[in-house]
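Dynein axonemal assembly factor 4
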Amino acid sequence: MPLLVTDYSWTQTDTTVYIHVPLKGAKVGKVDIVSTDEYLKVHYPPYLFEAFLLKPVDEDRSSAKVGNGVAVITLPKRTNKIWENLMITTNDKEKKKEIRERALLKYQEKVSSESRSKAEKQRTEKKYALETMMKLEKEERESVQKMKDAEREKTTAELDAWQLRQKQQAEEEEQVKLHTQRDNQNNLKAVTQKQEKRCSDGRNVKLDRRGSEAKCKKKPADLPAPRPAGNIQVTFTPRVFPTALRESRVQEEEEWLHKQAEARRAVNPDVEELKDLTEENRNPDWLKDKGDKCFATADYLSAVNAYNLAIRLNRKIPALYSNRAACHLKLRNLHKAVEDSSQALDLLTPPVAANAAARARAHVRRGSAFCQLQLYAEGLQDYQAALKIDCHNEALLADTQRIRDIIQGTAAHPDTQ
């Protein structure tokens, strides 16, 4: 049973009542205060203070301050009048019980109403934020569409202008060709008439029998027959890599190229929630470029969103996982960075020269995440794996030596980037 507090004090003015309740060593967080227009309760186990107020107060403007071992409750009066007493003087327990239950019920309804109002406000704010985000995305899509339309119109105009120039140039060449043919025909006609006139003159015939007559009667030379038609067989040398036969990795290279081709064909645009996206947003390569641009401007969250959507469309492109791991490193999502780097390394198989740089980057990113998680042994393994690929990288050599020093206890433990 709680202990009732009797050593309280109170003061009043025409408009306000002030009640001072000693807390007897209770902590601030353990004080429960309930205040209505006719009832006041201050409960701090095992002590309890109850006040059945003489006159009603304005509960909406009431306030309480707890500190320095005392709770000060301020109760504005509804009517500006001096009270004879703080509480009612009746000893009727049933009446007090009724007042208490009514006050507690009213307080619970007030708390419930405030909770509903708060939840409604949160829902409204969330809805507003969602609508704002959708509006921004719509504006971005419209802006991109306008850029595409403008670029399409520009390209179409350039193509039409080029076709017009080509047509005009062809007409000019045709006119030049016609003029040339006409001039050649006129020249040939003039030469022929001159030769016929010479051949019809007898003196010229006699004189020309030593040379000119043969020219007048000279037959055209026989032209060679056209060549027979046929097919030319073309063969191509097989694709080989510049390595010695005993070190050849042609099979692994061909397997990697085959995996790359399969990855490009593995786009899955049929996901239900992705059907409403634009054509660009259903293109993993376009999304990857968008993520790379966001990363370059330090907008890592937008870059992660772009890579997430690209991965949902195609889960076989290792660069998407590796680049998302770099974003997670910047955002300090270290476990996610380890997971994405491992996924990228699983896809970068078999290990060949074509994917060596990508494997080195994935090892460094996973090693950096391990080191920031203070798992230096695992991080050292990834840095050593990257060194096997790029053994002349001075920055990589320095980072690897720094991790060795940390493991051996000869250096501090900074976050390895």
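thats it. Residues 203-216 have pLDDT under 50 and may be disordered. The radius of gyration is 47 Å. bye
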